[in-house]
Write a structure and sequence with these properties.
- This protein has helices at residues 4-9, 11-20, 44-50, 53-60, 76-85, 91-101, 349-355, and strands at 34-36, 39-42, 65-69, 72-75, 106-107, 113-120, 123-128, 138-143, 149-150, 153-156, 162-166, 174-182, 185-194, 199-204, 208-215, 222-234, 250-253, 256-261, 264-269, 282-288, 293-303, 306-311, 332-333, 336-340, 345-346, 365-366, 371-378, 381-391, 400-407, 413-420.
- By secondary structure, it is mostly beta strands.
- Helix 2 crosses helix 3 (44-50).
- The longest helix is centred in the first third of the chain and has 11 residues, at 91-101.
- The N and C termini lie far apart (119 Å).
Length: 437
């Protein structure tokens, strides 16, 4: 049976709960945080909003909980007594008494596990309150429900307060235990559920449908297409747009045929329909049958697929070389930042190619004929664009200024000024007679 005195004595903390319930976001303040088995479970507002059953458990077993004040954790049952004996005092005044009268159980400066959660179908994140003195002595043991240990690799963030445990393969949906030890100190075991990876969110990130018109060489027919972008997230918030899970999403539109792959939507208008004449907006819907996740958007139409492009300030080369005439083997890359017609940053090859004014199919404009700047697909990811700069075999007599220009169909222009270095040459040489003749 629950002791009525204990409930009454809990009244001041209960008032905090009631006040906290009106807060829409969880605030993890230091003073007033609750601790259980060495893990910070947040303030009472967090407990009320996310795990109400803890409140009733704490009433029954308050001596197993900690209450944080000034970076130290005190026995919650003793803290409760101080609140009871000072019914008219402010929370701050009672907390001040706690620090002067009670003896802390532990200092928060000691290393503790704050949280353990799944971040993907094959990874977990362990968050500590402080950085361990020697992370090489921190041990993580991940086990399935049956007790089988799972091999993981460990990576730490720069401050050594977060460790990510990654399994080289997707884990079977199950309840997993994560035990953490700091040298010889057991920091506790947490249970984490791994669920089957699935589509959790589809987001059409474009607000405008970018229109590209290309003249067909057969009879001069204008071929028109519309472009937009989307992303797909799993239940852990990971981007799975390019994964097989996103391939089964069904996209529909009210203006023609539609195709979507790896984050890019392409719309071909129905016969006789000019996309630029649509004033009511283009409707796009997306639906994943396996999870029933769906979304929709109404996009305005605008000519062009890029709203801006900015070229970088210098070329990059894996060997750190300079752009030199006659050197046809070295490849240089010109960094850039591009913005799609909706104002979102983009590296998509199709959007960039359709949005730039190019010559000879895929070349940017250069001020001298000895150098080319070509828009190409990134060798490591064909959906992304790179600008490749190369020198020709021509021989020049002196260094020559070079300007590379990028222009969009929306009227934006960006340039970079460089120097094409003169090729290395042997200026003079002297013939010497053989020694002894």
């Amino acid at each position: 049976m629950v002791n009525k005195k204990l409930i009454i004595g809990f009244s001041k903390l209960a008032v905090i709960v009631i006040l906290a319930s009106s807060v829409s976001e969880v605030a993890y303040a230091k003073d007033g945080d609750l601790w259980k088995d060495g893990i910070n479970i947040g303030g009472i507002s967090n407990v009320l909003l996310h795990n109400k059953s803890v409140i009733f458990n704490m009433i029954r077993h308050m001596d197993t909980y900690g209450y944080e004040v000034a970076n130290k954790v005190y026995d919650a049952s003793k803290v409760n007594e101080k609140f009871n004996s000072n019914p008219d005092a402010t929370i701050e005044a009672v907390q001040s008494k706690i620090t002067t009268i009670l003896t802390p159980e532990v200092s928060v400066s000691e290393v503790m596990v704050l949280s353990v959660k799944a971040t993907a179908a094959n990874s977990f994140k362990v968050v500590f309150n402080n950085s361990p003195v020697d992370i090489s002595k921190v041990e993580f043991v991940l086990k399935e429900t049956a007790g089988t240990a799972v091999t993981t690799s460990i990576t730490w963030n720069s401050s050594n307060t977060e460790a990510t445990l990654t399994c080289p393969y997707g884990l079977t949906p199950d309840n997993y235990s994560v035990n953490v030890k700091n040298d010889s100190i057991d920091l506790g075991t947490s249970m984490v559920v791994i669920m089957q990876q699935a589509v959790a969110k589809i987001d059409i990130t474009s607000t405008k449908l970018g229109i590209s018109s290309n003249q067909n060489t057969y009879g001069g027919v204008i071929a028109q297409n519309g472009y937009a972008t989307y992303i797909v997230l799993d239940q852990y918030g990971n981007d799975i747009t390019s994964s097989h899970l996103a391939n089964n999403i069904d996209f529909q539109t009210n203006v023609g045929s539609i195709a979507a792959i790896k984050g890019l939507i392409m719309i071909a208008p129905a016969d006789g329909l000019n996309l630029m004449e649509i004033t009511s907006g283009v409707v796009i819907t997306a639906y994943d049958e396996s999870t029933a996740v769906s979304t929709n958007a109404i996009l305005t139409v605008q000519l062009g697929t890029l709203s801006d492009i900015a070229l970088g300030t210098a070329l990059t080369n894996t060997d750190g070389k300079d752009l030199t005439a006659g050197d046809t083997t070295d490849i240089f890359y010109l960094p850039f930042t591009a913005t799609d017609i909706s104002g979102n940053p983009t590296t998509n090859y199709t959007l960039i190619k359709k949005g730039l004014i190019l010559h000879n199919v895929d070349y940017l404009y250069t001020s001298i004929p000895y150098v080319t700047a070509q828009l190409k697909q990134d060798p490591s990811d064909s959906t992304k664009a790179v600008i490749v700069v190369r020198a020709h075999a021509d021989i020049i007599s002196t260094d020559i200024p070079l300007v590379i220009t990028a222009m969009t169909y929306t009227g934006k222009r960006s340039q970079i000024s460089l120097t094409l270095k003169k090729q290395a040459t042997l200026d003079t040489f002297k013939l010497m007679p053989p020694v002894g003749e």
